[in-house]
Structure formats: C-alpha cells, structure tokens
Design a protein that fits this description.
single chain, globular, mainly alpha, 137 residues, 2 strands
C-alpha cells in the first residue's frame, strides 16, 4: 500500500539522520553502506538548506562537510565533491536521485529511509547505546 508522503516528510527524515551522522564522535562508529555519490548528494541537500553546521554552530562549507562525514563514516572521500554533485545534477534518470529514492521508500512505509544506508559497527555498539542498530531509527 502506497502512503501519502510530502516533500517536507522526506526532508525531515533525511535531516534527522544527517544530524545524527554529524554528531558521530569517532570515525568508524558508524558505516555508510551507500555510495560516496549518495553521501555527497545528501550533504549538498543539507548544505543548500543551511544545515551543515559544526558543534559551535558555525556554517561549514560543502566540501569540508563531505570530507568530515567521509572520514567519520569510513568512506573514501571523492577527489572533487563539487564535480560529483555536478554529475548528479546532470542525471537524466531522476529516479536515481537520493531524495526520490527516499520518498519511494517512505511511500512503502519506511519511516527512516537513510537508516538502510547506515550501520553501527559492532565495536561502537559495545561502547555506546545511543544509537540503535540502524542510526536512522
């Protein structure tokens, strides 16, 4: 059964998971299962909305945020995040956009679609109970 999902619902679900990822303290606690391009696309969406802020409330630039999350999520950072984002913008198949895929998952009942792309590592699970098995939960 397809659920009615608004753009705001999708953005809020993505924002909540993004904020949790930005609060990861140690690299390797959480693993990104999506592609580096998916991560770049997520950061770009949050950056456009002015949500890429550090612990002191300072606005971070797009490329710095990509590097920061890649480091924390144990993802090899792209050489040129801006070029990756430009390639994403030029996609002819819009169904491949992360926000479209997240909307589709939410329409199928998934409340936290980015949770499918993130896993807490076993070592981190032993150290902290602040994250559920799927960070987006």
């Amino acid at each position: 059964m397809k659920m009615e999902v608004t753009e705001m619902d999708v953005e809020n679900a993505m924002k909540n998971t993004f904020f949790k990822m930005m609060r990861i303290e140690q690299p390797g606690q959480v693993r990104w299962l999506g592609t580096a391009a998916d991560l770049v696309e997520l950061v770009h969406l949050m950056w456009l909305n002015g949500l890429t802020i550090d612990e002191q409330g300072n606005l971070l630039c797009f490329t710095h945020t990509v590097g920061r999350l890649c480091h924390r999520l144990s993802v090899k950072p792209p050489t040129n995040a801006t070029a990756v984002m430009n390639n994403i913008k030029r996609r002819k198949n819009l169904d491949r956009l992360l926000v479209v895929r997240c909307r589709r998952m939410m329409e199928q009942g998934e409340r936290r679609p980015l949770g499918r792309l993130i896993r807490v590592t076993p070592a981190a699970r032993e150290v902290s109970l602040t994250y559920s098995k799927r960070v987006g939960d």
